Amino acid sequence: MRLPLIFGCAVLSGLLLSAQVSAQDSVPLFGDKTPDIVNPARSVSQLISRGKYADAMNLADKELAVNPQNVNLRFLRGVIFMETKKNDEAKRVFEQLIREYPEIADSYNNLAVIYAGEGNLGRAQDLLERALMNNASSVTTYSNLGDIYAAKAADMYAKAARLAPKNGRLKEKAQIAQDLTIRTAP
Description:
Layout: H1 8-17, H2 40-49, H3 53-66, H4 71-83, H5 87-100, H6 105-117, H7 121-134, H8 139-163, H9 168-183
């Protein structure tokens, strides 16, 4: 789906990026009880939050060589790829995590952010709806899905207003929907 120029992918990316699960927000997915001093996921998260992506990736890879099933580190690798604009790699990471752990909403959310940023709102919506089927208590997923619906509504009202330029009510609805999407961006 292509968003109209009045809305643009940059705004949509901003909408969902405000609700993407980042390293800063990251909590252990399976109740990781590793002490902070030796918690590699926490160390990787801190490096990501400081913008030291190469160091974060090196540490994650080093730790994953020892424990390749560490879900938290695997997820954080996807976040690093997102932060460094390597979306194809990030997609592969999140898709694999979804296959292995469909109950974890975070991978769906971040994958949806990537697709929405590419203008593929339908795929983003599908992912978020699947996430809710597997985990109906994810606030981030509901928020992201609301942003998708708002973006789609803005797109539809804008198209309708272009087809009926004299219809003031359609123009008003298009403006309200566009304002809603802009207000939710960071």
